[in-house]
Amino acid sequence: xxxxxxxxxxxxxxxxxxxxxxxxxxxxxxxxxxxxxxxxxxxxxxxxxxxxxxxxxxxxxxxxxxxxxxxxxxxxxxxxxxxxxxxxxxxxxxxxxxxxxxxxxxxxxxxxxxxxxxxxxxxxxxxxxxxxxxxxxxxxxxxxxxxxxxxxxxxxxxxxxxxxxxxxxxxxxxxxxxxxxxxxxxxxxxxxxxxxxxxxxxxxxxxxxxxxxxxxxxxxxxxxxxxxxxxxxxxxxxxxxxxxxxxxxxxxxxxxxxxxxxxxxxxxxxxxxxxxxxxxxxxxxxxxxxxxxxxxxxxxxxxxxxxxxxxxxxxxx
Length: 317
Ligand SMILES: Nc1nc2c(c(=O)[nH]1)N[C@H]1C(S)=C(S)[C@@H](COP(=O)(O)O)O[C@H]1N2
Ligand SMILES: [Mo]
Fold this sequence. Notes:
Blueprint: H1 17-21, H2 23-38, H3 69-74, H4 88-91, E1 101-106, E2 112-115, H5 116-121, E3 126-133, E4 138-148, H6 149-156, E5 164-169, H7 178-181, E6 190-194, H8 195-199, E7 204-209, E8 212-213, E9 223-225, E10 238-244, H9 251-255, E11 279-282, E12 292-293, H10 301-304
Parallel strand pairs: 1-10, 4-11
Antiparallel strand pairs: 1-2, 3-4, 4-7, 5-6, 5-10, 7-8, 7-9, 11-12
The structure holds the ligand Nc1nc2c(c(=O)[nH]1)N[C@H]1C(S)=C(S)[C@@H](COP(=O)(O)O)O[C@H]1N2 and molybdenum atom.
């Protein structure tokens, strides 16, 4: 067994509560090792991440211009806090993220509740530079720090009956005002993937961004990132991962199934009922920056299109 549940671990090995205070150090330490391995010093170049000159792994492209960190941090969608992109930044600072554990259950051989620190110890962190395309037709390029979701799932050994994965975000109404006052959406926020999508090497769990831990407003301490799907699929502040036989009911799809498909694959040919998805506004551009032509699967079609061979993508997203 690679990840240990609490009862399997001798008390000397259980993560000390003090470690929770130092998650930032732990993550930065893991990243420092990554850097040391390349012999490149982590200096911040203009508009590049601390890791900008590192090998990017297999899935990041060098042709992407990163969106400035200040924009990514101050223009967020986090509806538990606010429907206003500028307000969730300060409100999210009230979220308690220490300690943090994730319950993994359902169709797996090794269910359990795992401290985030114990999960991180088993994973290798890497930078993934991905486009993020919101269903509202804006986009950015984010240098995430994270690890493969598939690699975590393999450790808990999915059964052959695991066809879908359900993700549940934290319910913390004392910190998240809309969980009490807004009844338009159901809380906690829930998202889901098909098992092959969850196991796909592009799908990651992010714990950081721009070479540091995740800002709370961007989903700390642990969020999903699925770069070929609209942003609403990339659920923040995950506390539960369930492997299921049947597709889960997800927050946005339940609210408006015609506007927010379960798959949510980026598709310029399928308009939202109230706007076209053909182009997108790139955050961080100037007044003169042209809108970007939105690409099928957000430009990741070469890697992911084969998963959807039996779907008619002209009418489907
Ligand atoms: N828990 C939770 N996760 C969420 C959301 C949310 O409101 N709550 N918003 C989603 C939407 S609509 C988008 S576009 C992305 C935005 O991520 P960012 O704010 O880090 O840019 O987060 C997604 N994950
Ligand atoms: Mo979004």
